[in-house]
């Protein structure tokens, strides 16, 4: 694990020989595996009691990877050959568990990082959890873009008499049988939750406040994402976007006509600039066209038993599901660092956002999914391996200094 007690009398101070990695999701696991391959030990601190807690604890039952498995592999170990093209949630979790086993990765669970500070005098990172302080030359933030649910402030929501849940707590439409459900958000989660609700005879009303790109998950039998990645190597981005939209309109029809207005910026460019992912349709669009999923304009306010909308409509509603996404939580625990913006994302854009100063690294913040994570993890491991000197990590003088500060 690469850690040792700093001093016999100080059970709560732990020196870590290699880097400290915060987060045991795909980003933390990938980085730890790449470091192991380079001969560098590391220690992962994880606030929950399991690997990939977002996947294990906060995802709905019907979730599958939106991209084919070859775009979602972590470095050095691919998916089992017998996995389908789009692995489901449980298959992906089993892959992550076997990945951790393969590289002998053993995170320290139930270690919620409360603060991480750089000690300028000693040149070390001090990472405090509820019961220990961990000290290392390197700190890797691997908590990712999706650490905390985003709960929007909607007028009147506190007056609502029904249940209000974020998709992080939603498991299946079976809990909402025959209900009128307001789904706030029209990204991949909002679309899929609405589709799931239809299968349990619920009546989803999906709120679409902004423009959204909807693309077919596959074009001509090939992954849309795969086609885009192949074309982008040969053609300018604007041309690839134009092609994708042309084919999408041919396959799906004009989505504007069902209340899903497309942004003026193309889908790949929009993803690169803002991180907003296009929706890859897995069946929700046909339910919208048939009226099973009702598309609503923005919510003006929530009432005791329903909602008033911007276009003047009013509907009675039994439950509300917030498909409003997630955000980074880095600003809540990383102190004295201006590498991240107020939203907890690196200020330096991809592909150079993986390395900050003073031994600070970041993985899983590329807005490019698991492909971006894999790319970051490999770069970070190589960079730290170049600095790594086994056994020169913590001299006795450092121990004494740390004890006195």
Topology of this structure?
Blueprint: E1 3-7, E2 10-16, E3 20-22, H1 26-37, E4 43-45, H2 53-57, H3 89-102, E5 115-119, E6 124-128, E7 133-136, E8 139-141, E9 148-149, E10 163-166, E11 180-184, H4 188-198, E12 203-207, E13 214-216, E14 218-219, E15 222-223, H5 224-232, H6 237-252, H7 267-274, E16 279-281, H8 284-289, E17 294-296, E18 299-303, E19 306-309, E20 314-316, E21 319-322, E22 326-327, H9 330-333, E23 360-362, H10 369-387, H11 396-404
Parallel strand pairs: 2-7, 3-4, 3-8, 8-23, 10-21, 11-12, 11-21, 12-17, 13-16
Antiparallel strand pairs: 1-2, 5-6, 6-7, 9-22, 14-15, 18-19, 19-20
Summarize it.
The chain is an alpha/beta fold and 405 residues long. It contains 11 helices and 23 strands.
The largest beta-sheet arranges its strands as 1-2-7-6-5
| CA-CA gap between termini | 26 Å
Q: What is the general shape?
A: globular
- What's the gyration radius in Å? 23 Å
Number of helices: 11
For this structure, the CATH topology of the largest domain is FAD/NAD(P)-binding domain
Low-confidence stretches: 4-9, 392-405
Overall number of domains: 2
Strand content: 15-25%
Oligomeric state of the chains in view: single chain
User: Largest sheet, described in full?
Assistant: 5 strands, mixed
In CATH terms, the superfamily of the largest domain is FAD/NAD(P)-binding domain
Helix coverage percent? 25-40%
* CATH top level assignment of the largest domain: Alpha Beta
Strands, total number: 23
* Content-based structural category: alpha/beta
Cofactor: FAD
Catalytic activity: indole-3-pyruvate + NADPH + O2 + H(+) = (indol-3-yl)acetate + CO2 + NADP(+) + H2O
Family: Belongs to the FMO family.
GO molecular function: flavin adenine dinucleotide binding; indole-3-pyruvate monooxygenase activity; N,N-dimethylaniline monooxygenase activity; NADP binding
């Amino acid at each position: 694990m690469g850690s040792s007690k700093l001093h016999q009398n100080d059970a709560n101070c732990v020196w870590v020989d290699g880097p400290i990695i915060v987060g045991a999701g795909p980003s933390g696991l990938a980085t730890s595996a790449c470091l192991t391959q380079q001969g560098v030990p590391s220690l992962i601190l994880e606030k929950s009691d399991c690997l990939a807690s977002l996947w294990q604890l906060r995802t709905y039952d019907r979730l599958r990877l939106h991209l084919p498995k070859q775009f979602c592999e972590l470095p050095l170990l691919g998916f089992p050959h017998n996995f389908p093209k789009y692995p489901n949630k449980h298959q992906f979790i089993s892959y992550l568990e076997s990945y951790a086993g393969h590289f002998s990765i053993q995170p320290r669970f139930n270690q919620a990082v409360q603060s991480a500070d750089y000690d300028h005098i000693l040149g070390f990172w001090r990472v405090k959890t509820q019961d220990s302080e961990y000290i290392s030359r390197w700190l890797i933030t691997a908590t990712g873009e999706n650490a905390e649910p985003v709960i929007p402030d909607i007028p009147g929501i506190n007056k609502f008499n029904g249940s209000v849940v974020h998709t992080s707590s939603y498991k299946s439409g079976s809990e909402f049988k025959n209900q009128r459900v307001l789904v706030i958000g029209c990204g991949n989660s909002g679309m899929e939750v609405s589709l799931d609700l239809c299968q349990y005879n619920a009546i989803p009303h999906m709120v679409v406040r902004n423009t959204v790109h909807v693309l077919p998950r596959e074009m001509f039998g090939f992954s849309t994402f795969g086609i885009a990645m192949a074309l982008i190597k040969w053609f300018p981005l604007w041309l690839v976007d134009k092609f994708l939209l042309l084919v999408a309109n041919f396959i799906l029809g004009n989505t504007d006509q069902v209340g899903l207005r497309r942004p003026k910026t193309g889908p790949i460019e929009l993803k690169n600039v803002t991180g907003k992912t296009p929706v890859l349709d897995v069946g929700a669009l046909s339910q919208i066209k048939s009226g099973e999923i009702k598309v609503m304009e923005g919510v003006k306010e929530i009432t005791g038993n329903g909602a008033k909308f911007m276009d003047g409509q009013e509907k009675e509603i039994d439950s509300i599901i917030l498909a409003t996404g997630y955000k980074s939580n880095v600003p809540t625990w990383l102190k004295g660092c201006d590498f991240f913006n107020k939203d907890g994302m690196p200020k330096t854009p991809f592909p150079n956002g993986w390395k900050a100063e003073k031994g600070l690294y970041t993985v899983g913040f590329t807005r490019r999914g698991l492909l971006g994570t894999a790319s970051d993890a490999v770069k970070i491991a190589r960079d730290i391996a170049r600095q790594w000197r086994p056994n020169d990590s913590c001299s006795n003088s450092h121990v004494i200094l740390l004890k006195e500060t």
